[in-house]
Amino acid sequence: MQEQTEKQNDGITYAPPKSAYFWLVGIFAITFAVIYIALVLFVHFVATGEGILGLTEIQALTLYVFVFLFFLVALYIYLVVSRKELLYSLKRLGALMTLFTFVVVVNIVVIAFNPYLICVALAAMLVLPFSKKSDAFVLNAFACLISSFVLIATLDFAEFPAVAFTLLAGMICGAVATYAFPFNMTRIVSILRTFVTGVVTVVVYGVLLSTYKLDFQPFLDNILYIGLSVVGEMFLAAVLVPIVEWVFNLTSDFKLTELINHRAPLIRRLSTEAPGTFNHSLAVANFAEICADAIGEDPYLARACAYYHDVGKLNNVEYFTENQAGYNPHDEILPEVSAEIIRKHTVDGYDLCKQHRIPEEVARITIEHHGTLPIMYFYNKAKSLTDGEVDMDEYRYYGEIPTGKIGAIIMICDSAEAAIRAMDNPTGDKVDKLLAGMIDERLKLGQFDNCAITMKDLTAIRLAIVGAYGGLYHKRIKYNIGRNGINV
Fold first, then answer.
1. How confident is the model at residue 329 (pLDDT cuts 50, 70, 90)?
2. Do the beta carbons of residue 137 and residue 175 sit within 8 Å?
3. Element (H, E) at 38
4. How many Å separate Cα 269 from the centre of its chain?
5. Do the Cβ atoms of 131 and 62 come closer than 8 Å?
6. Could you tell me the CATH number of the domain that includes residue 385?
């Protein structure tokens, strides 16, 4: 166990599988090959300049290898050191590197027409909906560095300012595209962000070009190309984000908003076929969103996971307490049969999610939200009906322990919502004590052994649920109802 973990000040961070590092090397090898081939073809067939360094073609091709390797090794180190959690989702990582490669190749192509056509903020615009802001900024910076090097290799020395301006504009505009809007993305906010980034791009180039010779003429000479670059960025960002969402089946703020729409197919089925489960999921979602926000996780993702965590119950709606109205079919069947029906809803939910192309980050929660916990009610019932030994493993959920903090949040909130609702006269102290015992039990049973959640996180989750409890389960005023159903 010790070999698989790395100690931190406040907890344990679990290392991704070693194979992920090799897969990442493969992704980077493909990235290197595509960019290098694009540059070689561009230099050989299109470029007219001899390059600022004045190298022969063989020398230049050799230099390209070393420079590209340097940039990509630096990017690889960033990912495996600072963004190790991405190694758990190679599909997402592959999508990010695909977008990065696309931006660099586009920049190589447009350089043939004019250096000011380079899309200095496109990488940030494309990456941000699918990953953290730091990833968007870093990938955009590396795209601008590689593009600037291509300018060095293909432009004449007289055009050297274009290299410096591209690099400066890329850093400034990339930062604006990434950090100008700190709140979660909506379609309108995304359009506004793209527009503001475009305006900043024009202003930055205007300042740089005008300051260079203390004359507006260089800016006016290139304003058409700068404007085309801005329009191109807006168009590509609008078109490619939904395409990448669909092709890689990734979650973005836009996708998550669509998933939690009550008219989404599985959610609509829950509300009509299993209204008890649907209402339970809504309550869990409220808890989960608050808890995710408390520990710095994505509240949109937490809410979506909560909405879908129990969709597997659709296969046997009447066997779950929240959907029953007096009659309990478990009273007429053996406990092992009951346990089989109950524990199977986790894998049934995953299958339903895959059939409806629900993204993996959300679908996985269906098989993680109960982990490998035993179903104690039916286990104890089986023990009471036999004098022999009862194998507890036959009464465990079909599932896996959470692999991320969102999975741990849903596990806690799911159990907490059901337990609080079942309590007699719950108070804040009673709820706090219940949650503390529940979390401690799951720690002892190893349910959080495969995710990077810390004791600090677990405390924050517990306090967030206690704080939310008063708002979700508050008492209402009892109204006196008259004979005609009118408040009196």
1. very high
2. yes
3. helix 18-45
4. 25
5. no
6. 1.10.3210
Residues 235 and 160 occupy one common structural domain: yes
Which range of residues forms the domain containing residue 180?
A: 2-249
Would you say residue 464 lies in a domain? yes
Question: Do 454 and 392 fall within a single domain?
Answer: yes
Residues 186 and 263 in one domain: no
How many folded domains does the chain comprise? 2
The whole-angstrom separation of Cα 273 and Cα 323 is 9
Is the same domain home to 242 and 269?
no
Residue 207 C-alpha from the chain's centroid: 37
**444 residue type, one letter:** K
Half-sphere exposure of 390 (CA within 13 A, CB side): 20
User: Does pLDDT of 4 surpass 60?
Assistant: no
Q: How many CA atoms lie within 13 A of 271 on its CB side?
A: 11
The phi and psi torsions of 391 (rounded to 5 degrees) equal -75, 115
Closest CA to 373 of 349, 407, 398: 398
Separation of alpha carbons 316 and 338, rounded Å: 11
Closest by CA to 34, choosing from 119, 146, 117, is 146
**Which residue did the predictor score with more confidence, 187 or 40?**
40
232 and 287 share one domain: no
What pTM does this model have?
Answer: 0.77
- How many residues appear in the chain? 488
- With beta carbons less than 8 A apart as the criterion, state whether 84 and 238 touch: no
Buried b (16+ CB within 10 A) or exposed e, 447-460: bbebbbbbeebbeb
Phi/psi region, residue 214 (left: phi>0; alpha: psi -120 to 50; beta: rest), is left
Residue 61, pLDDT above cutoff 70: yes
CA 459/CA 180 separation, integer angstroms: 32
Q: Is residue 478 part of a domain?
A: no
How far, in Å, CA of 100 to CA of 106, rounded?
10
Nearest CA-CA partner of 468 in 306, 356, 337, 344: 306
Encode 188-207: b = buried (16+ Cβ within 10 Å), e = exposed.
Answer: eebeebbeebbebbbebbbe
Residue whose structure tokens are 């192309």: 357
Residues 6+ away with beta carbon under 8 Å from 226:
116, 201, 202, 205
